């Protein structure tokens, strides 16, 4: 490999820092309620307007290895804490920018890493100490409110944060269903049960049923004859065999006291008639994901083979079809179903997607809040409080080594990037904000009135800590990177061979 493909030492560090700053810059303008929207355009010309940092980073199409590592950092923050992705990337950018300055002043990356880690553990301890423990539901509402503020869902923040918190009290985010349907957002509702966006497979079926439910994986149709038949007697015979096959399945379902069938594949029309005759409510072409959620929640078996199932494979539940103007859906409730479904009406497909993203974050943070109940003040308050604590010398040890200490202080100062960015988004004077926050901890950024004051905005402690740790841990591993080796693309190797 020639030397052009290896980037080493200071040059590699520059690349990393520049990329991190570029990416932090790309998303920092979206931070907070006054954050601006960005338009994402893909190669096909599809456009989305969003101010969700995670969405922006995820959709970034890049070949730059450093940029893709940073995009991964955002993804893992989202997976761990559901929110705080922009915060994480913005802090990481600031930490790397300050590291770069320190390196230029002759501080070795290892000293920086030590100082950053020291600062982090002090900040984690302090945030824990000043967090407030709230009642679970209230913590969930507060967390959801903060996550929804600044998104297009904000107009409905009160209804939605109540829904998110109640949902989080009964179900974990992975078991929650979020359904966007056409309609007015104020009609959003929480259903304690599983919701499947499906109407009955044919008219004339019952719309309510209670009892055993069969969850079926395979197509409900007779076996197909592979030969082409011309003899009417033979055709008759085949039809009779097919009918007998269907009768047999239905007889088995009846014997297992099945009242409802959810089938992942198609249900043949003759089969539907038989089911209807036996008062069995049936749904066909149900998404696999929905079927699996039911299997999980109801504790039954997924049926793949009709020759081999019995009553004990069935799950018991009540099922109700809800007719709505646009989409009919079915609600499944049962003992031990700890599922919550949110039905989110939205006027357009695009707003539906934005609502979906906002709610995914909001139910996630609500869940963290309901579980942990420890909350800290948002709007930049918590970061200013941690920064103040670390810099004031009250109760925080300083490092013996002056270079490590410089890095510890740089970490503390870097945390201020959050209130600073919020202030910037509101058009406030940065210098003024920084000085004031440095003197009086406990203030946050009121982005609407453009003042610093005590704010009633709360975030789960876990989100704040995770964003900060993610920023440090990933920043540190980038600082450790000494060289970047670019492997050649295969096409280039071929092209070179051809030229020779
Ligand atoms: P992230 O991806 O980091 O969650 P957001 O765009 O959601 O980015 O912005 C989160 C920041 O906005 C947090 O620091 C939060 O405290 C702050 N914030 C949320 N609501 C308000 C508010 N009403 N006033 C000021 N800041 C707020
Ligand atoms: Mg957020």
Task: Describe the protein's architecture and organization.
This protein is α+β, with helices and mostly antiparallel strands and 500 residues long. It has 17 helices and 19 strands. It has helices at residues 9-28, 53-59, 65-81, 85-104, 109-130, 136-148, 157-170, 232-255, 269-277, 288-298, 349-372, 381-392, 402-414, 417-425, 430-439, 461-479, 490-499, and strands spanning 6-8, 38-41, 47-50, 132-133, 177-182, 189-191, 194-196, 208-216, 258-263, 281-283, 302-303, 315-322, 329-333, 341-346, 374-377, 444-446, 451-453, 458-460, 483-485. The strands form 6 sheets. Strands 7, 8, 9, 10, 11, 12 and 13 form a 7-stranded mixed beta sheet that branches. α3 (65-81) packs across α4 (85-104), α7 crosses α11 (349-372) and α8 packs across α9. The model has no long low-confidence stretch (mean pLDDT 86).
Class by SSE composition: alpha+beta
Gross morphology: elongated
* Helical fraction: 40-55%
Which consecutive residue ranges, at least 5 long each, have pLDDT under 50?
Answer: none
Quick gist of this model?
The chain is an alpha+beta fold and 500 residues long. It has 17 helices and 19 strands.
């Amino acid at each position: 490999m020639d030397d052009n493909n290896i980037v080493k030492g200071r040059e590699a560090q520059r690349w990393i820092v520049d990329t991190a700053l570029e990416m932090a810059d790309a998303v920092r303008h979206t931070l907070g309620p006054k954050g601006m929207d960005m338009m994402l355009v893909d190669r096909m010309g599809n456009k989305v307007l969003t101010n969700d940092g995670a969405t922006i980073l995820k959709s970034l199409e890049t070949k730059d290895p450093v940029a893709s590592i940073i995009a991964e950092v955002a993804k893992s923050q989202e997976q761990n804490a559901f929110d705080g992705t922009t915060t994480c990337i913005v802090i990481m950018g600031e930490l790397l920018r300050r590291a770069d300055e320190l390196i230029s002043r002759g501080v070795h990356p290892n000293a920086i890493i030590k100082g950053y880690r020291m600062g982090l553990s002090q900040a984690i301890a302090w945030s824990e100490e000043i967090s407030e423990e709230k009642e679970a539901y209230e913590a969930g509402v507060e967390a959801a409110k903060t996550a929804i503020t600044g998104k297009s869902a904000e107009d409905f923040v009160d209804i939605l944060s109540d829904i998110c918190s109640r949902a989080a009290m009964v179900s974990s985010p992975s078991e929650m269903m979020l359904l966007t349907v056409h309609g007015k957002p104020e009609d959003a509702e929480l259903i304690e049960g599983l919701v499947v966006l499906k109407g009955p497979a044919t008219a004339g079926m019952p719309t309510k049923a209670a009892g055993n439910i069969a969850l079926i994986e395979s197509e409900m149709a007779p076996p197909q004859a592979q030969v082409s038949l011309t003899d009417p007697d033979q055709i008759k015979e085949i039809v009779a065999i097919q009918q007998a096959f269907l009768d047999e399945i239905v007889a088995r379902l009846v014997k297992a006291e099945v009242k409802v069938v959810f089938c992942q594949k198609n249900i043949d029309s003759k089969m539907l008639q038989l089911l209807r005759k036996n008062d069995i409510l049936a749904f066909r072409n149900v998404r696999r994901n929905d079927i699996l959620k039911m299997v999980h929640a109801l504790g039954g078996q997924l049926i793949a083979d009709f020759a081999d199932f019995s009553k004990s494979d069935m799950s018991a539940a009540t099922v109700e079809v809800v007719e709505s103007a646009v989409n009919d859906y079915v609600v499944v409730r049962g003992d031990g179903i700890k599922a919550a479904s949110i039905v989110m009406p939205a006027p357009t497909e695009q707003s539906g997607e934005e609502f979906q993203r906002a709610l995914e974050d909001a139910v996630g943070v609500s869940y963290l809040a309901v579980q942990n109940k420890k909350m800290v003040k948002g709007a930049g308050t918590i970061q200013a409080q941690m920064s103040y604590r670390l810099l004031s010398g009250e109760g925080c040890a300083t490092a013996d080594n002056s270079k490590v200490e410089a890095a510890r202080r740089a970490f503390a100062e870097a945390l201020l990037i959050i209130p600073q960015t919020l202030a910037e988004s509101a058009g406030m004077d940065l210098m003024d904000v920084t000085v004031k926050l440095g003197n009086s901890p406990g203030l946050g950024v009121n982005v609407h009135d453009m003042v610093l004051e005590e704010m009633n905005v709360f975030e789960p402690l876990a989100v704040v800590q995770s964003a900060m740790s993610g920023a440090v841990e990933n920043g540190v591993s980038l600082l450790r990177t000494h060289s970047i080796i670019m492997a050649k693309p295969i096409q280039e190797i071929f092209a070179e061979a051809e030229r020779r």
